[in-house]
Amino acid sequence: MSVRLGGNILVTGSNRGIGLELVKQLLDNTGQEDHIYACCREPEGAGAEVRLSTPPQVTIVQLDTSDEDSVTAAVQVVGERVTASGLNLLINNAAINKPASPALLSATSKADMMEVFETNVAGPFLLAKFHLLFCFCGQMSCRRSAIINMSTLVSSIEKCPQNFHIVQMYPYRTSKAALNMLTRCLAEDFRKHSILVTGVHPGWVITDMGGKEAPMTPQQSVLGMLSMMSSLSDKDSGKLVDWMGNQIPW
Ligand code: NDP
């Protein structure tokens, strides 16, 4: 990495997939003075690999992004720990894709739509609203104060793929397009506090969501993303970029 990431970092959905790999690689690149808040919906759940051999720089926090009370409680726990210095980096990684694809429009319910929006959009919105981030005046960076919203190439209206199964991912794709607008609004709103806000597409990655046919491992994706994130600056706030830093049109 050209600029080391560090300080107080919060990652949502850190018990598996890309979120878990983010915590692992951030740990390899942070020092004793840094701290990672690894948030997961069920810290005691069977899949919560993140809780195994937790080093002192990691605090596991229960956080269900679809549940306002859970977000409020997590913000309180983290807020008491980071006190006046605030969070330096918030990575909104947790997300769901429902119903499991391939799914037809006819098989997609309003309940699917609402659940996906609550998790993928309302959660990141609330975490931004509670405003745990470090406020300052100066050059923006992920080291100082930033929100990274994990988005996707398939959120792009301009790049809308023709593939039938992707076209029919109604809740997921519309939620990520809404997350992109949240990114854009927050970037303008938080410019006064020098908080960088950027949407990131991690690539197509082998995880429960990405499937086994994906061309990239979580290790490769996260290596690229952390390197790219360490070089983000003012000009990247309010944009959507991929794991290599290439800009994606809205
Ligand atoms: P996974 O499905 O493997 O993991 C999703 C994570 O989100 C899990 O930790 C899950 O926790 C968590 N999560 C889901 N719902 C909630 C909730 N309500 N509250 C808290 N945590 C929740 O996904 P990936 O790791 O593949 O995806 C990570 C991010 O990358 C997502 O934002 C996704 O949209 C994005 N992305 C992924 C791509 C890929 O190819 N994999 C491609 C493009 C974007 P739990 O175990 O409790 O369900």
TrEMBL record:
Kindly provide the name given to this protein in its UniProt entry: Zgc:158868
Family according to the record: Belongs to the short-chain dehydrogenases/reductases (SDR) family.
Q: Which organism is it from?
A: Myripristis murdjan (pinecone soldierfish)
Please provide, in alphabetical order, the Gene Ontology terms of the cellular component aspect for this entry. cytoplasm
A Pfam family this protein belongs to?
Answer: adh_short
An annotated Gene Ontology molecular function: oxidoreductase activity
